[in-house]
Every structure is written in structure tokens, then in C-alpha cells.
Amino acid sequence: MASLLSKFFPTPRYLSRPAAGLDISDQSVKFIELSHRKEVFKIVKFGEKAIPVGTIESGVIKNEEQFVATLKLLVAEHNLSDVVVSLPEEEAYIIRLDLPYVDLKELRSSLELQLEEHIPVPVADIVFDYEVLSMDEHRGYDLSLSAFPRNIIEGYSRALAAAGLIPVASEIEAQAISRSIVPAGNAHLTMIVDFGKTRTSFFIVTGEVVLFTATAKHIGGEDITKSVQKSLNLSYAEAEKLKIERGLLSAKKQQELFFAILPIVSVLKDEIVKHFSWWESRRGDDRELNQAIERVIVCGGQATLPGLIDYLNLNLDLPVELGNPWTNIFVFDRYIPPINLNQSLRYTTSLGLALRGISTEHD
Predict the structure, then answer these.
(1) Could you tell me which residues are beta bridge partners of residue 61?
(2) Which of 180, 221, 101, 156 is nearest to 352 (CA)?
(3) What pTM did the predictor assign?
(4) pLDDT tens digit string along 124-159?
(5) CATH class of the domain at 1-90+150-182+327-363
(6) What local confidence, expressed as pLDDT, does residue 98 receive?
(7) Nearest CA to 127 among 161, 171, 158?
(8) How confident is the model at residue 55 (pLDDT cuts 50, 70, 90)?
(9) DSSP codes, 276-293
(10) Coil, strand or helix at 307
(11) Is the pLDDT of residue 104 over 90?
């Protein structure tokens, strides 16, 4: 998908190095920069800064000055410049859209005429791009459209510029994650579950094309920690440690822990079923992309909760696997990255953005 920020920050015609992948969330900003020489990827540098509570809420910048200050710290410590940046999933409108056939040069203006039927924001107040999934002169276009409120884009643009960062491309988090963990060239329909600290996002993708996104703010690793803390009468730090070390692993002496965690992962399972059922009820026989979801990939910082993948496989009719952020990056007999699995899952979005940064360099 073309850069949604290109209207605000034109891509430079020269790039002296690959652009780093900059992943911005409510809690932190993370980056990774990759190099690609002689068909081998290597990590050049990576880092993270916590974002003060209340600075960004549900993807909306509430304190631009504080956000800029955090970005400046990251820039100063790691000499960052060119970045591919993620845009907040919560503020995105992702729409699967049918459109009668028009000449390709007229497609954008034709889309603009229909946007207000699908998005509850005036056309003048949004920025959008699209992917053509299929096209036929008789059947028209099948599109995946992504749109953001213009004020959200402008807020991120100002903050990045004030911190001295140059965004050479931007995309939604779902697109970056799919580039990172879905094997290149794999066009099977996949549901990606990004299980984070304070929220969980659900994406349905085919290759790198995002067809659907949803976010559940009531499901996250922090909810599990607080449940363990309350049920076992522990400190927050003790509960977090027990969650990470034991998770859902069953043992008689761990039954209390299991039942403290179970309600949250049960809701996670129910959300997966809900989104699977939604897709099944809407995929039409007249679409070329009339695919069924074939698997679920779980990623994110909480995805390594012990026993989680086994629990989901036992309770879902779809195969579930743990995401591998290195899928399209490293062959481990040639290079061992300086980040372990738990860390890499937290950097999944940054890695997908960094891969875009490599391709941008070669464009």
C-alpha cells in the first residue's frame, strides 16, 4: 500500500542507508534497522523508549510535546533519521469494497465519491490509499481500502518532523506484521492475533494485503497479570514473573494460577471465533478471493505465555501457531540475531517496517 504520509512528507530521492522500522504504540516506541548485503540480513541497531502514560491514548496523540521529547531521546541515543513508521490501528478504517470498472487513472476520484457511504468522516477530513485485489472489465474492482482521519496523520507528521525524523513510508501495523510473519509469496488467508500488553488486535490478511482489522481493548497481558495478582494475593512484580514462567502449564499445585489466567485466554479464544464467524458469513461466492481462513498466527509481546498456543489449538477448529518474526529475514545457519524469541515477538511490527525500509532503499 502506498505511503499515507507521502502527501505530507515526500519520499527523498536519495537514501544513504535503509530506513529503520519505527513502531509507535500507547506505551512505547520501538525501532529496528536492518542491513541487507550479499543476500544476508543483519540487525544494525535496535532500541526502545517508554512513552509516559497519557501521552498517546488509543493511537491518538494527547500530549504532542511529551511525545516529541520521547522521540528526541531515541533519535539522540541511536542517531536515527530515515524511518518507516506505523500508523495507529485503532484509528484506521479498513474496508473491502466492490467498485464498477473505470479506467485506472479515474479510480481514486471514483473512490472519493463513494467513501462517505462507508466511512463516517467527511472525505475532506481523511487520507486514504487502496490495494486492488482483483480487476475485471465486466465485474469491476475488488479493493482493500485503508483510511485515516487527516488530523491523526498531521499530528504524527508534526511530531516526527519536530524530533528530526524523516518518514520515507508509512503503513498500518497489520501490514507490517504480515510482512514479518507470513512467508513471502504465501497467499493463503490467515488470521493474525497480535496479543499485546493492554490490547489485542485481529487481522485477516492474504499475503501482505490486509482485508480486515479489529482491536479488543479488554484483552491483554496486563489483564492476566492483574488477575493473577488478585487471585494469588501477590505483588504485581511477583504475578508478572509467575505468569511469564508458568502461564497455563498444568500441574496440581498450579491450578489456582491456571484458573486465574483462564478467563482472559478464554475471552481471547471467543474473539478469534467471533471474527472467524464474521468472515465466513460475509465471504461471497461471486468473489475471486473467496477464501476461507486457513490458520491463526499469534504474535505480540504476550504470545509466548506458556501453554497459550496449546490451549488455542485444543479449543479451536483452526491450526494455531506462534508467529516467527524472522520468517522472511534470517537463515539461522548464516546469522544469529542478538534478540531472543520473546524480544523478537515484541519487535514484530518494527521488523516488518524495517523490511519495508530495505525495499524502499532499493526502489
Answers:
(1) 56
(2) 180
(3) 0.85
(4) 898 888 888 888 888 888 888 888 899 999 999 999
(5) alpha beta
(6) 83
(7) 171
(8) very high
(9) HHHHHHH--TT-TT----
(10) coil
(11) no
Q: Which CATH superfamily is domain 183-324 in?
A: ATPase, nucleotide binding domain (3.30.420.40)
Q: Report the alpha-carbon distance of residue 94 to residue 211 in Å, rounded.
A: 7
Q: What dihedral do alpha carbons 24, 30, 35, 41 form, nearest 10°?
A: -100
Question: Residue 10 has what pLDDT?
Answer: 52
DSSP string covering 111-161, please?
A: HHHHHHHH-SS-GGGEEEEEEEEEEETTTEEEEEEEEEEHHHHHHHHHHHH
Q: Where in the chain is the domain with CATH 3.30.420.40?
A: 1-90+150-182+327-363, 183-324
Cell 497455563 -> residue: 248
Tell me, what amino acid is at 53? V
> CB of 153 within 8 A of CB of 8?
yes
Count of beta carbons in the 10 Å neighbourhood of residue 314: 10
Predicted confidence at residue 288, as pLDDT, reads: 46
Q: Is the pLDDT of residue 29 over 80?
A: yes
